[in-house]
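## Example record

The block below lists the input lines for one assembly entry, exactly as stored, with component labels intact.
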Amino acid sequence: MKRKSLWASVFIATLLVVSHLYAGGLEERANKTFKPIPESAPALEGNPATPVKVELGKMLYFDPRLSASALISCNTCHNVGMGGADYQETSVGHGWQKGPRNAPTVLNSVFNIAQFWDGRAKDLMEQAKGPVQASVEMNNTPEQVVKTLKSMPGYVRMFKEAFPGEKDPVNFDNMAKAIEVFEATLLTPNSRFDRFLKGDGDALSKTEKEGLGLFMDKGCSICHGGVNMGGQGYYPFGVVERPSDEILQGDKGRFKVTRLKSDEYVFKAPSLRNIELTPPYFHSGKVWSLEEAVRIMGSAQLGVKLTQAEVEKIAAFLRTTTGVQPKVEYPVLPAPTEGTPKPRLD
Amino acid sequence: MKRKSLWASVFIATLLVVSHLYAGGLEERANKTFKPIPESAPALEGNPATPVKVELGKMLYFDPRLSASALISCNTCHNVGMGGADYQETSVGHGWQKGPRNAPTVLNSVFNIAQFWDGRAKDLMEQAKGPVQASVEMNNTPEQVVKTLKSMPGYVRMFKEAFPGEKDPVNFDNMAKAIEVFEATLLTPNSRFDRFLKGDGDALSKTEKEGLGLFMDKGCSICHGGVNMGGQGYYPFGVVERPSDEILQGDKGRFKVTRLKSDEYVFKAPSLRNIELTPPYFHSGKVWSLEEAVRIMGSAQLGVKLTQAEVEKIAAFLRTTTGVQPKVEYPVLPAPTEGTPKPRLD
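Predicted C-alpha cells for the full assembly:
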C-alpha cells in the first residue's frame, strides 16, 4: 500500500495549495481552476487546418467504409449527436463483439494531453489509426483503407486538395491527419458553467454554485480541472479506496502501456464536460447514474463519504457543463466504384 | 408460363403506346416519360409537416436508442450520406444478423406508391414501424420505444410541440409520423438529367443522351418512368427470362404479402434515381456493377440482349440522375436519464 500512501500525501499537499485559493469569491476561485471552452479549434502542431482538410476529415469520420464491414464509422462509437459517445457500457464493434472499454467522448478531446483511457495515443492523429485496425472495432488494415479511399475519385480529389503538393496524398497518415483536424472542431463552448466563468453570476443556480464549491473544496477539481475538467493527468482508480471488482473489471489501465507496477489501475482522468450526455461512466461503463459515479469517486479517490445532499449538488453543477453541441452538416460521401472493396462481415 | 405470356403482351402493348411518343425530340419524349424531382417535400395526407415535426423526425431517424441495442438507427441502413442506403448486399442488424433484402434508398422514397421491395407498407409512416420491430433489424417493441422516448424530457417536449393539443403525444404512431415528414424532405433535385428535362440541352453529353434514348426505346422506362424513375408499379423479376438463382435467392417477393400465385417473384420496380451511389443492386444485392445490372435487366425483363456499347450508354445516362443530396444538419439528441432503457445486446 506504499503507492497509495504516496498518492495520498500528494493529494493532501495539493489540497493545502488549493485551500490558499479560498480567499477569493467563488467565481475568482473557479477561474483559477478552470477555463472556458474556446469558440474555435486550437491550432495543431504539424497539422495545419484548412477548410478542405476539415471537410475531408468529416467525410472520413462518418464513412463506415473505413471499416472492414462497411458498417462502422468513427461516429458509430463517438456519435456527435450523443455527446460524442455511444450510450454503451463498452463499445460494440466488428461481428457484434463487445470491446474492452467505454468509448470516451470525442467532444473537446483535442484538449486532452493524450488519447484513450490509458493515454496510449499521444494525439488525435495517432488515436484515429487505432480503432480502424482493432479487430474488435473496425477490423480493417491500413492497406485496405487506402485501397478503399483510392478507389473513389471523390476521395482522391479531396486528398489532393487537402494535402497540396504531395506526390501520394491518399495515405493512412493523411487520413488520420484529416480526421484530427475535424475532431479538433468538435467543441462545446458556452455552457452555463462557462458563462459563469466569464462573469455571468446568474448562469448558475444557488444549488449549482454550492455544487461547484464542493467540487473544488472536496478535491474533485485536482484531477478534473483546466479547460477540459480532466484529461490532463493519470491517476490510480482507487487512490484511497479500491472500487468494486464489478467496476474495475480487472482492467489494469495504463499498466498495459508502461508495464510499470506503479501504473496498475492508473487511468487518464476523463473530461467531465457534457457528462450528463454520456452515461454510462468509468472505463468499464458499469455505472449509469451520475450521482452514483460522484459518490464512488468521493470514496475511491478522495476517501470522503459524500452526503446525499453533497452528491446531488455536485451532480447538479456537473450538468451545467453541457455546452452548445457542435453543428455538423452530414457529409455527402463519395460514390463507390467497382474497385471499392466489398464489405467483409466475417 | 401463362403469366409470362400475359406480361409479355402487356409489355408489347405498352411498347406500342410508347412508340407513338417517338415523333418528338429527345427532350420532348423524355418529358412525356419522366418528371424532375421537386425542390421541396410534397404534402402528406393526414400528416401535415411543421418545422418542429420535421426536426423531431430527424432526431428519431438518427437515434440509435430506438433499437434494442441502442446501436442501430434508421440512418444505419438508410445512410443519408451514402445515397440513402448502406453499401451492403442485404442489411446487417441486431446481433450482426444479415437481413433478407437489400436496403432500398430513403431518398425520394416519398414518391413511391408503397414502401419495401414488396410494397407491404402503404406509406413511409407505416414503413417506419417495420424495422424498429424486426428481430433482424432493430429488434425493439413499440412499448419499449415509447418508454425510451418518454424517459427523455428533450423528446417529451419535442413531441408536445410537434403534436399540439394531443393528450398523450409520445406514442408509436407519432414517432412514425415524425419520421415520415422528415423522410419526405430527403429529395435530390437538380440532377443533370433533371436540368436536361427542364430545358438545358447541354446538361447531358452525347453519349448520355444516346443512353437516355436507349432507356426509352428499349422499354426500361416503362417500369422506371415518372418522377422517381420507378417505384410506381409491381413487376415479376424475370418477365421474359428468369434471372439466375444466385440473383433471385429464392425470394418470392410480393407473393409473401398477397399469397397470389401471380405475385411470385414480383417486386416493386425500384427508383433508379442516384443509382450510382447505391450498389449493390436488386433485392438480393448480388450484383455490384451498374453495367451488369443493366445487362441483366435487358435480358430478364425485356428479352433483349443489349450490346456492350448500349449497356455503357444506358449506365452513363443513369449516372446523370444523381441529384443534389439533401443537406442534413446532424441532430443533437436528447440527454438520457436514469429511466432510459439500457442497451440490450442479446
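The radius of gyration of chain A is 21 Å. The first strand of chain A starts at residue 92 and ends at 93.
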